[in-house]
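Why does residue order matter? Because the sequence determines the fold. Keep that principle in mind as you read this record.
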Amino acid sequence: MAYDELVLAPGSISRTLPIPGLAEHGIGFKTVEEAIGLRNHVIEQMDIASSTRDPAIRDAALTFVFVGGGYAGVEALGELEDMARYAVRYYHNIDADDLKWILVEASPRILPEVGEEMGTYTVTQLRRRNIQVLLETRLESCVDRVAVLSDGQQFPTRTLVWTAGVKPHPVLAATDLPLNSHGRLTCTPELTIDGATHAWAAGDAAAVPDVTAPEPGTETAPNAQHAVRQAKILGDNIAHSLRAEPLETYAHKYVGSVASLGLHKGVAQVYGRKLKGYPAWFMHRVYHLSRVPTFNRKARVLAEWTLAGLFKREIVSLGSLEHPRAEFELAAGGKPPHDPKGSN
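Structure:
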């Protein structure tokens, strides 16, 4: 297929390891569907624990293991623990202390993006909420719904969330374009693919030199902060190329990071300033609201957040969003789709 300009921006997929049982029982946390499914799954496990008389089933249902101490793992764990702690008021036979939350991280620290001090603070805050934070620990197996860790601990669990990073989309390996050691497209600061004519890349799939970094050879991180900014420069540069004009250089200086740890809880390091608790959570919300496109969408999101702050939290499972045609297919005589919640 001939082309005038080629743009490759397939993004990334979850980075998994060949751990026994992970493919069968692991739950990802990268897409909107996975996020909704995980929320529904946690509520469903509380329903199971409340209705069963088998202590083994109850214990496994109320044990939640998260693997990966980056943004995705820590924020997912913090938000879900906060939601579940609120939801227990609707169960007459479940207390907040019955819930067992475990964060497994292979490195000596979590949230490296917010600095060592804020990472240590986050560990302290999570442990105060009775969340087990296991550093320098790896998941060895999760066969038969039992999480086996490298330190010898074993946790029967029906919820194992895998958030141990991402890797470039495998479609890149099927091309003849230049890739770096991590499998990302080797790009120039102008977002052209190095060594390829009329080819461009941006986002998680692109290894773009960070011209603002003090150390030469540094590449921009595969995150949304860079992706949305690179997309604008890429579009402008294609227009410049068609008009035979000079190309713009992508340059975005890292100013800090924010992370939510649940409702009204968070950590942040922005412009060298460290924030904790409510101020960090508020900055997290403000920053994400500023990134929402169009004024109309911003107003809708802000109105939803404001109303959510004035009333009680909604603790309702929205399972039909995951498989909207399941009921119709069953009525039509077809085979219903496999329910991932049953295997997770």
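Residues 32-51 form the longest helix (20 residues).
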